[in-house]
Specification:
The protein is 35% helix and 32% strand. With 183 residues, the chain is an alpha+beta fold.
Length: 183
Amino acid sequence: MGQTVISVTRAKTRWRTALAITAVAVAVIAVIAAVAWFTVIPRVAANLTTDVATRDQVVAVGEAAVTVPAGWAVQHPPFDDTAVVLLSPDGGLAVTISLERLTPDAALAAREPRGVRATETLGSGLEAVHLRTIGDTLTVAVGDAGSSPAVVFTAHAEDGDVRPYTRVLAQLINGTALPPVVP
């Protein structure tokens, strides 16, 4: 009789130990999966959706189009056809381009309500509204004055200065095309 009680107690102890080991293993796997989900997988997905322009090419951003210079990397975020990320050939500048269902001025006001904005008319007749910022970021919204959509360019310089990229940013902005507005 005493041996049976000891056997049952040992069986319960083994069962609890196995359950504890299993719980710890599941927790470790969950932590590893979470780290991979937030660090590794986004980078792999970005690389899988990246093309390098071998010549000047037109890239769709929703129903808008932007001409991308040769040598630039074009990343298409998964499941989002209204945005692209461009990386300069030297890796020093990243430009996020998105299509916003707002007028150019409203698109920038939504980002920075009190920011100082300057407006210019491009050769194509589109309006470009610049958000003047200090530092490594320049934001420009391009579209038909007073109507939506707007194509928003947000440029970030790796070294903190977007000025060396002014010419190529102007080329990107001037290479923006929107579908005609149907009254």
